[in-house]
Design brief:
With 484 residues, the chain is α/β, with parallel strands linked by helices. The protein is built from 19 helices and 18 strands. The protein has two domains: 212 residues, YjeF N-terminal domain (Rossmann fold, 3-Layer(aba) Sandwich), CATH 3.40.50; 265 residues, Ribokinase (UDP-N-acetylmuramoyl-L-alanine:D-glutamate ligase). It binds ligand NAX and potassium ion.
Length: 484
């Protein structure tokens, strides 16, 4: 598991560390890391380091100081470095002196055109963790003129450090070098995209950090959490997943959610609903009945995709919520809960519920998301005493106790009709096996995204292809566990 820490936590850790090391040490460590990545990018994009040209965009604070020191390190490797000062009277003095000593050029924003045009790489040291709001007009104009790849120092300037929100002009980096740990800007929403590839450089601050504010799962974490049957297991012990989804008119959701539950490794899938024939035809291993009332025992329910928002869907949801087993409620089930909060009364208070809304469903259930997605999902998880998984390029999964897990999409190919049905089937499969619901949602999100990526191989796919690719995705995460 990799942690993500808010800027507040990072600042506090930096304060503690700074008291123990000579002044300027951390900045030079940070800058050394930036210079190393800059050299790597120059090699990649310009075929070498010595003789190549780098422009530094330097703002008023320590972020600009990092860029200037990195420029000084690059000068020693034969790079032509020009610093563009956006705020000359507030430029980091030691950093500027170091760059000048190393033979770097310094220009003001008004005369930066030639340096930016000639640059093989641009380093964004405009603003770091103290950044507020989008780029100011002067910086925005310069950034718009950049054609070379951009390496962001700590974070792409103009993005909100704690929410990843982009609300105007912002740097779009090819890569970001950050210090000590990942911050929310690197993993949330537009910030994740604007950060490019994120490299974490250790500067000592990582040793001072408390428990993370959010976590990201690695392939090995998912591989370790995904249930593997043992010699004593049988189909019941592996878990029976109930699927209450789809309808005779719209059988697709039923077929996809049931298929994902099968491929996710549950011991048995019981389907209950009016799409029983379609489910049987595609997945003969599924035990299909017409109604939840005669579905038999299950260890978890998936409810919602395609059940409709009328009276029949309402009754199905009420039955499932009162069954006393974990529930993954998706799609129409969320709309029903939003419209009729009394449905919550049916729930056994100790039964875990995982809600998997997309943005529209989330808004219906819990109000507008706003720029701080994590705060919104945390609030909803607490309010509904449920695990809440908000879908998006970054999937955010909150536990009612405040823990948050995020999953970054590899690509947008899985954003296709029926994709959500696959996710809920996978979650159901894990819930039935007794996996902790918060972790189950995180693991399912990871495998869902990986399956989409493996199926797509750079071309569009349908949700059925994602279901087919689930075993490949599971082999991949299990291999990561074995190889460590
Ligand atoms: N504190 C530490 O121990 C370390 C800090 N480091 C660097 O220090 C950075 C934080 O430095 P600072 O706190 O000095 O502040 P920043 O460099 O993030 O910001 C400087 C100033 O820019 C202005 N500003 C805010 N939003 C802006 C916007 N949208 N456009 C233009 N200007 C804006 C504000 O006046 C702000 O105080 C980190 O991101 C990192 O790069 C590193 O050197 C590592 C060690
Ligand atoms: K920056």
């Amino acid at each position: 598991m990799r942690g993500v820490w808010t800027t507040e936590a990072v600042r506090a850790a930096e304060q503690r560390l700074m008291a123990t090391v000579p002044e300027g040490t951390l900045m030079r460590r940070a800058a050394f890391g930036v210079a190393g990545q800059a050299a790597r990018l120059l090699t990649e994009h310009a075929g070498g380091v010595s003789g190549r040209r780098v422009a530094l965009l330097v703002g008023a604070g320590s972020n600009g100081g990092d860029a200037l020191w990195a420029g000084a390190f690059l000068r020693r490797r034969g790079v032509g470095v020009t610093a563009v000062l956006l705020n000359p009277e507030r430029t980091h003095a030691e950093g500027l002196a170091a760059l000048r000593r190393a033979g770097g050029r310094v220009v003001e924003a008004g005369s930066a055109g030639a340096a930016l045009t000639a640059a093989d790489l641009v380093v964004d040291g405009i603003v770091g963790l103290s950044g507020k709001g989008p780029l100011r007009p002067g910086a925005a104009e310069l950034v718009a003129a950049v054609t070379a790849p951009v390496l962001a120092v700590d974070m792409p300037s103009g993005v909100d450090p704690d929410t990843g929100a982009v609300d105007g002009p912002a740097v779009r980096a090819a890569a970001t070098v950050t210090f000590g740990c990942r911050k929310p800007v690197h993993v949330l929403g537009a910030g994740a995209v604007h950060s490019g590839t994120v490299h974490v450089v250790e500067i000592g601050v990582e040793r001072e950090l408390p428990e993370p504010d959010m976590v990201l799962l690695d392939a090995a974490d998912v591989g370790a959490a995904w249930p593997v049957p043992g010699a004593e297991d049988n189909k019941y012990r592996r878990g029976v997943t109930g699927v209450a989804a789809g309808s005779a008119t719209y059988p697709g959701a039923a077929v996809l959610a049931s298929g994902a539950a099968v491929q996710g490794g549950t011991g048995m899938v019981r389907y209950a609903g009016t799409a029983a024939d379609a489910v049987r035809a595609r997945w003969p291993e599924v035990v299909a009945t017409g109604s939840v009332t005669d579905a038999g025992r299950v260890q978890a329910w998936v409810v919602g995709p395609g059940v409709g928002t009328g009276g029949a869907g309402h009754d199905v949801l009420e039955h499932v919520l009162s069954a006393g087993v974990p529930v993954c409620a998706d799609a129409d089930a969320i709309t029903l809960l939003a419209r009729d909060p009394d449905l919550w009364d049916a729930r056994d208070p100790d039964t875990p519920v995982v809600l998997t809304p997309h943005e529209g469903e989330f808004a219906r259930l819990a109000g507008e998301i706003g720029p701080d997605r994590v705060a919104a999902v945390r609030r909803a998880a607490e309010r509904f005493r449920s695990i809440v998984l908000l879908k998006g390029h970054t999937t955010v999964i909150a536990h009612p106790d405040g823990r948050v897990l995020v999953n970054l999409a590899r690509s947008a190919w899985p954003a296709t009709a029926g994709s959500g049905d696959v996710l809920s089937g996978l979650i159901g499969s894990l819930l039935a096996a007794g996996v902790d619901p918060w972790l189950a949602a995180g693991c399912a999100a990871y495998v869902h995204d990986l399956a989409g990526d493996l199926a797509a191989e750079g071309a569009p796919i349908g949700a059925s292809a994602m279901v087919e690719a689930v075993p490949d995705a599971l082999r991949t995460v299990r291999a990561a566990t074995v190889t460590g």
